[in-house]
Amino acid sequence: MERKSTTREPIIQEPEPFEPEATRRRAGTTESARANRGWWDRNADEYQTEHGTFLGDDRFVWGPEGLDEVEAELLGPPEELKGRDVLEIGAGAAQCSRWLASQGARPVALDLSHRQLQHALRIGGAFPLVCADAGALPFADGSFDLACSAYGALPFVADPVLVLREVRRVLRPGGRFVFSVTHPIRWAFPDEPGPEGLSVSASYFDRTPYVEQDEEGRAVYVEHHRTVGDRVRDIVAAGFRLVDLAEPEWPAWNTQEWGGWSPLRGSLIPGTAIFVCERD
């Protein structure tokens, strides 16, 4: 006969899902790196599930607008990429590196997040994957002909000049670095894809970082704002020459929303800025 319990079973309650608090406050180099490494490791699976189809496995897309390097040729004509050593910074699942390899280039895909690089391994590709901080690149001087970063590293670091100088160090003379970031004007608007995202709600000139923090005030995600002028001065201070600034328009074919990016907002204000820099 089954023995009956004389005590009530404890009720097990699932913990409430953690919702970080969004705020604007200072966040230095160490705090930003720690928070963003953790955030991307935790959210890499969801990110690749949500955006993997749009990004593809071997496309080189510069941002949510869908500007493709095949059309943009910001790194140069595709036929000139063959045999070139290329560093991709903030590579994620290395979609851009995979496209570069298909053009005959020799890419190296670098990311701060180990989990993102595991997705790169899952998809595959015959090129090196490196888990490292963009502010301390583990490569010798003059190792690469080109470097690129599609929304990688630069928006998430407290000291962008440090990263830019590191990129310049590992580039050979005449090398080109192309990177895309959220268009700085977007920081003046709420990060909403609908009509509520079209009214200015903050000062464009407020450089206070956007921070998501836990109950104890520890940052779990950090993004840093720089104005267009700041970005240009950072590029010059690092020893680069700015040769182009691209602001992709939202194309009619792209009906997808991506966070605060949307066809509605994209038809009215820029969402992405792409800086094309060269080392003399």
TrEMBL record:
| Annotated ranges, domain Methyltransferase type | 87-179
- Read off the InterPro entries from this record: Methyltransf_11, Methyltransf_Superfamily, SAM-dependent_MTases_sf
CDD domains in the cross-refs = AdoMet_MTases
Question: One biological process GO term for this chain?
Answer: methylation
User: Is Methyltransferase one of the keywords UniProt gives this record?
Assistant: yes
The segment annotated Disordered runs over: 1-38
| Name the record gives this protein | SAM-dependent methyltransferase
Q: Which organism is it from?
A: Streptomyces minutiscleroticus
